[in-house]
């Protein structure tokens, strides 16, 4: 079975690397032949620091589907159309927004050094923080704050983009139109009902809609309605659910049909 895991708030918490208990749980899945895919809002660059080195070659979806990595190499990116990117940048300037703009590897960050996003941004200095005009292309945009948030949000909703509003952090997350975690899975050749998904936020909705089973971590209203199962937002509950699913699959594989005599 394929298992698709969101990262932040699902299997890693407060921006910290995966715990030893979580690594053991995921390794147990892999050792039994299950395929694991990480699917995050983070670009691939910022996925790597929270994963142990032996997982860096595992399949990954970053930027809510805008990046796809297989075998430790980014195999595809989905940037914004240039005209749309220019409209977004115009709105960033008009509303004096603080932002994180990701290119295919480098980025432009103008927010506070104390913002939680900054703590998770390129901690290993794998890339460069450049002026936004110097980025070759724009793949993902996160608005941290702006002068008139509601008016900016209204303007953004008129653009052909995928827009997520994360209420807990009060940030807005933008991806190119038609790009989400499900399209990232499709780029890997994964079909509907061929996987189990774990997630905790609005950007996991597309994953849940096409999953065979889905586990909502926490109490996100829309995800909870779509999920087949739900666990509390605490690492021990997620680890326990992974272990339970592994045991279920083992039990299923060990069950042999009984042939009745005629």
UniProtKB/TrEMBL annotation:
GO terms for cellular component: cytosol. SUPFAM superfamilies: HAD-like. One of its GO terms (molecular function) is phosphatase activity. InterPro entries: HAD-like_sf (IPR036412), HAD-SF_hydro_IIB (IPR006379), HAD_sf (IPR023214). This is HAD family phosphatase.
